[in-house]
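User: I'm writing a tutorial on reading structure tokens. Could you give me a worked example: one chain, its sequence, then its tokens, then a sentence or two explaining what the tokens reveal?
Assistant: Sure. Here is the example chain.
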Amino acid sequence: MKNSNLKSYKIVTFGCQMNARDSEKLAGVLEEKGYTEATDEDTADIVIFNTCTVRENANQKLYGHIGQLKKSYLTNRNKIIGICGCMMQEKDEVEKIVEKYPQVKLIFGTHNIDEFGFLIEEAIGSNKKVIRVYDKSNNVEKTLPTKRVFGFKCGINIMFGCNNFCTYCIVPYVRGRERSRDVDSIVKEIKSSINDGVVEVMLLGQNVNSYKGIASQSYKFKNNYDVTFPELLNEVAKIDGLKRVRFMTSHPKDLSDDLIDVIKNNSNICRHIHLPVQSGSNSILKAMNRHYDRDSYLRVIDKIRSNIEDVGITTDIIVGFPGETENDFEDTLKLINQVSYDAVFTFEYSKRTGTKAAEMDNQVPEDVVKERFKKLLKVVEENSGKNVERYVGKVMDVLVESEDKISGKLTGRLSNNYLVHFNGSQNLIGKIINVKLVKGCKFYFEGEALL
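And here are its predicted structure tokens:
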């Protein structure tokens, strides 16, 4: 039962779209219990930090937030401060929080988020810390109430965990091995979201291409087991009322010709593929345990561009991975110029305790990493704008997402993930409209709504 002294909550999310989706579920549970969202952490009676641990500086960011809450906790001893997410799957971090941060009342991990409703009640009614972290879970059906950030779009988890074990990545250790939801539950959740006003869904997984789900007799697949991601995506695209389908993230080693065909043949599947390459050097890709080389990656890119019109391709790049030579780095710059990405998300390599890469002897000096990172940003900047020009003058569909409070202009997103800014009224938010692209501005467009 709700504690009458506690009235509001604030959820702070770090990390990926998977975490963002989990935070919507946490908010849904609290809203169902009668709590309302506070404007900030200090005034909230319940504060939940949903953590990321891909990089160690994410951990330090969390500790900064917790420290800042100490004053408000001392003035409100009933305040509940909780931490969940990937970081809580690390035993050392949990022990550190228990020892040094007495204001933290609740700790739980990625595998038991579905117990949040019971855990928050236990934390409210107990004088002791509530700690519940499972090492692993076979449960993939997290049927929790949801409070969506946007009423017209949402993420849908289709799988959890990862089997790839890239040498720089901690995710398989904190999220566990891959577990795919069955087709029926995914479709049911999407249909429910559409009934609530959603027009766009994003199918979420650490590597959606390796999805292996199960379908009942109501779905006509070749067999009822090991339904592939292209088959699932094709089924989802048929759902009445679903205007747009996105997915995140793809692994280059698993992106198949079948997937390209499904995107090509379904107009409501968005023309955007995020395909992280991480490096343009074969030796570095091998050291990263990525299971593809430069040439095979470029062949996938060529197939995508040859078959899908107006496709937007984005990627991730890590600079300064252990053993990276100047020639390796130059190979990465050449790849960026060759592919001409629509957007590149860039990262400086930093040691992540618990990964194989952190134990490698040939770490690149920090000053070298930073210098290369500057060069990378310059090349990315030079490439930006090359692709936008080919769209100028076109009329394209835009999902209107928000209004900029400073300019008053509306912001929407094309199927290929480019942003468009244009004049219009707030009642267009959540609708898909035609917009003429009148000016290309590197990473976005200025447009004119055609109503």
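What the tokens reveal: Residues 406 and 436 are 22 Å apart (CA to CA). The chain is about 30% helix and 20% strand.
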